[in-house]
Amino acid sequence: ETHGITFRIQISVKELLDTDVLLKLLFHLPVNYPSALPDISVNSDQLTRAQCMDVKDKLLEQAKQHLSEPMVHDLILWIQEHLKYVIKQSATVCSEKPTLSKGTSIEDGIWMLLLHLDHMRAKAKYVKTVEKWTSDLRLTGRLMFMGRIILILLQGDRSNIKEYLILQKTSKVDVDSSGKKCKEKMISVLCETKVQPQHKRFQTFEVKEYSTQDELQKEFETAGLTTFFSEFVPPLLK
């Protein structure tokens, strides 16, 4: 009632050279859908990450044309018909994308997200999943463990950060007390904001463990995020 609904659809599409492409589409419909656009995530083992992002962008463009009317079925029909053209266009413009960096358009899109997780029962599997998602979505930052505190700090394109959040909330990333796979229900978004000039840009995503609060605080200070630590971390230690 407060978060809308999320569902997955898998479709097989005839692509170039008559090969089948399995598209895994995830739609999150907000409570005010269809007056508001859905969040869309696209994955496929046969496509590159860049191609998946292009498919997602094209679907969102189509969604805007159907605002205020049910659209998911129309979007699926559209991508089944136009996937080959989207992929062709993606290959054509790929070499042109770096020229965008001449301005500040790419940097303008860099955002930061700080998440708090309550626990990880299947820690090794959970960490591996987070590392894969951040790699696929070209996100950098830290997965930080300090005692019982678990924090995920991410930097990257805002649309990729939003897609990460959808994956984090809808995928079975952990196990419950009986050992069955389960979704992450104990997650808090502590902060989501645009990266500022005083903030250090992380170049990689790393998993780190800290023995003391001082070590964790130093990590935030080194990244120019002292105020973030002061505001969000101490309440978690109580």
Automatic annotation (TrEMBL):
Domain RWD residues, every copy: 1-86
Pfam family, one: RWD
Keywords (A to Z) from UniProt: Cytoplasm, Nucleus
Main location: cytoplasm
One GO CC annotation: cytoplasm
Annotated compartments: Cytoplasm; Nucleus
InterPro entries recorded: RWD_dom, RWDD3, UBQ-conjugating_enzyme/RWD
GO term, biological process aspect, one: positive regulation of protein sumoylation
Keyword Cytoplasm included in the entry's annotation: yes
Residue ranges of coiled coil: none
Superkingdom of origin: Eukaryota
Name of this chain's protein: RWD domain-containing protein 3
Naturally occurring in which organism (per UniProt): Thinocorus orbignyianus
